[in-house]
């Protein structure tokens, strides 16, 4: 007896909504902008040291809402 060709049965897929992305914090936005600038000026510095330096700049940055506390 010959096999019958099966046709794929379309399945109902529910649309999965992507979760809403969280708003980027002021610190993360600062680091995203300043870290590449610092690395461009100081090419020989490794990432860890660059991150420490830029994080210390955040402490007194005018963009820091908790500056001086």
TrEMBL record:
<dbReference type="InterPro" id="IPR056775">
    <property type="entry name" value="YABBY_C"/>
</dbReference>
<feature type="domain" description="YABBY protein C-terminal">
    <location>
        <begin position="7"/>
        <end position="63"/>
    </location>
</feature>
<dbReference type="Pfam" id="PF04690">
    <property type="entry name" value="YABBY"/>
</dbReference>
<dbReference type="InterPro" id="IPR036910">
    <property type="entry name" value="HMG_box_dom_sf"/>
</dbReference>
<feature type="compositionally biased region" description="Low complexity">
    <location>
        <begin position="1"/>
        <end position="16"/>
    </location>
</feature>
<protein>
    <recommendedName>
        <fullName>YABBY protein C-terminal domain-containing protein</fullName>
    </recommendedName>
</protein>
<feature type="region of interest" description="Disordered">
    <location>
        <begin position="1"/>
        <end position="21"/>
    </location>
</feature>
């Amino acid at each position: 007896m010959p096999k019958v060709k099966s046709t794929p049965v379309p399945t109902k897929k529910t649309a999965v909504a992507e979760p809403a992305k969280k708003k980027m914090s002021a610190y993360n936005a600062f680091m995203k902008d300043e870290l590449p600038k610092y690395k461009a000026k100081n090419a020989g510095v490794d990432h860890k040291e660059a991150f420490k330096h830029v994080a210390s700049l955040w402490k007194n940055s005018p963009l820091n809402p908790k500056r001086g506390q």
